């Protein structure tokens, strides 16, 4: 069995792939053959073409002047003969499990041309995940680390926070201030402060679409059991802390899981950056009734770009009777029923939820009046129907146009 690339630590730690059992299984020639037989012609071609271009491997194809002349069946046979050297691709194949097609395509767009990316489209207009992953691995194996991290972003909800009394911006940008060594030192201080014997492990730091993403792994207090060599081992489940900073450090989104730890770390980072005491506060009470009224008015008038209102549910919050309008002309029906129920758009506390089309996907926005202050309304939305970029676009559209913050529906209990 030949060596593997780039390192065992990369697969086990960065991508959390169970390296040892997979390595043991891959030594079985029958398993390697079954795996290669499971790959499509397109997926085989990505691997095959990479080996064909490699000068060290050209002797494997000495009987073929052009790789285009080689059939898929022949490619499969030729790769089967050298299958023991394909362990890296077997690991990539395993890595593809439970990875979002949207996340893979998003990372691919940053490095592959649009025309080349189109060649990976299937008949259902979705991308061939394995072919793309094989290609990205060949291009730069660290792209898989980005996919691993952004796949977590795709699956998790986030809480938005804003910096209280933000200091003046520093001469050194926040982006330039952040580095792995700086973060490592801050995490070390955080662990000393927590004094719980757990270590905060720096994973990745990415700059993407006007955001700075910091990924940290830390043991949680939730215990679990593992079986190893017929022995029971008590362990702590890993906790993933994702911190999404704005470029000026004045705002941050924290993943729900261990957001309390994330908030402490985020506060330490901005204190270190601004060199003065400062902290983030929850943004959930930022929406005034007037802001929401303007937004709903424009939705009813169909004046919000890229958002099409098709359902509105309203009624007193404590009442069991509610009315739902499901139509493309909600404005007309509101005018008809106004003499009986009053102006829904004036008293926005009556609105329970609306449903809109955004990028051809149905998104529900739910409204709840703040129990402590009736002039503030919390809005959450069904984020999981959108991919990560669509979520950012959706929230940015409403925030930039109306100053409104919308939260993940899963965050309503926080």
Description:
The chain has 414 residues and is an alpha+beta fold. The protein has 3 domains: 8-153, no CATH class; 158-282; 289-411, no CATH class. The protein has 16 helices and 12 strands. The protein has helices at 8-14, 19-26, 29-38, 41-53, 72-81, 87-95, 101-109, 114-118, 129-139, 143-155, 174-177, 180-194, 259-274, 289-300, 330-341, 388-402; strands at residues 158-163, 200-208, 211-228, 231-246, 251-255, 280-282, 307-314, 323-326, 351-358, 361-369, 377-381, 407-408. Strands 2-3-4-5-1-6 form a 6-stranded antiparallel beta sheet. It has a 6-stranded mixed beta sheet with strand order 8-7-9-10-11-12, with helices on one face. A hairpin with a 2-residue loop joins strand 2 (200-208) and strand 3 (211-228). Helix 4 packs across helix 5 (72-81).
Which labels suit this protein?
single chain; 414 residues; alpha+beta; 3 domains; six-stranded antiparallel beta sheet; 22% strand; globular
- Structural class assignment: alpha+beta
Q: What's the number of helices?
A: 16
Percentage of residues in strands: 15-25%
Strand line-up in the sheet with most strands: 2-3-4-5-1-6
Apparent shape: globular
What is the makeup of the main sheet? 6 strands, antiparallel
C-alpha-based Rg, rounded: 26 Å
Order of helices and strands: HHHHHHHHHHEHHEEEEHEHEEHEEEHE
Average of pLDDT: 87
- The first-to-last residue Cα distance is 51 Å
Q: What percent of the residues sit in helical stretches (DSSP H or I)?
A: 40-55%
Total beta strand runs: 12
Number of domains: 3
Please mark out the parts with pLDDT under 50 across 5 or more consecutive residues, or reply none.
none
């Amino acid at each position: 069995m030949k060596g593997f690339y780039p390192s065992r630590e990369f697969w086990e730690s960065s991508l959390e792939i169970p390296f040892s059992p997979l390595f043991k299984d891959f030594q079985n020639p029958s398993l390697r053959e079954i795996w290669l037989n499971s790959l499509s012609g397109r997926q085989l071609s990505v691997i095959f073409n990479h080996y064909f271009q490699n000068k060290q491997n050209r002797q494997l194809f000495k009987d073929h002047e052009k790789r285009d002349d080689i059939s898929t069946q022949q490619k499969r046979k030729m790769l089967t003969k050298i299958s023991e050297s394909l362990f890296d691709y077997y690991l990539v194949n395993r890595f593809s499990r439970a990875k979002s097609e949207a996340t893979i395509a998003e990372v691919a767009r940053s490095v592959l041309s649009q025309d080349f990316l189109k060649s990976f489209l299937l008949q259902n207009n979705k991308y061939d995940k394995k072919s793309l992953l094989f290609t990205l691995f060949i291009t730069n194996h660290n792209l898989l680390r980005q996919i691993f991290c952004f796949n977590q972003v795709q699956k998790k909800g986030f809480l938005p926070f804003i910096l209280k009394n933000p200091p003046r911006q520093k001469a050194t940008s926040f982006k330039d201030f952040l580095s792995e060594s700086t973060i490592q030192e801050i995490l070390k201080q955080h662990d000393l402060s927590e004094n719980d014997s757990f270590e905060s492990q720096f994973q990745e730091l990415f700059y993407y679409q006007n955001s700075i993403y910091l990924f940290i792994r830390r043991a949680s207090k939730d215990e679990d059991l593992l079986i190893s060599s017929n022995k029971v081992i008590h362990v702590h489940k890993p906790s993933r802390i994702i911190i999404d900073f704005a470029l000026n450090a004045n705002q941050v989104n924290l993943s729900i899981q261990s957001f309390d730890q994330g908030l402490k770390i985020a506060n330490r980072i901005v204190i270190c950056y601004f060199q003065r005491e400062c902290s983030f506060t929850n943004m959930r009470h930022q929406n005034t009734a007037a802001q929401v009224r303007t937004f709903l008015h424009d939705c009813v008038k169909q004046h919000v770009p890229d958002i099409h209102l098709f359902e509105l549910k309203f009624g007193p919050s404590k009442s069991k009777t509610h009315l739902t309008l499901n139509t493309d002309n909600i404005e007309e029906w509101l005018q008809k029923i106004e003499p009986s129920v009053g102006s829904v758009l004036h008293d926005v506390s009556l609105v329970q939820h609306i449903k809109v089309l955004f990028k051809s996907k149905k998104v529900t926005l739910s409204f709840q009046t703040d129990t402590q202050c009736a002039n503030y309304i919390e809005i959450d939305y069904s984020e999981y129907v959108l991919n990560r970029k669509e979520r950012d676009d959706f929230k940015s559209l409403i925030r930039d146009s109306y100053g409104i913050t919308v939260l993940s529906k899963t965050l309503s209990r926080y």
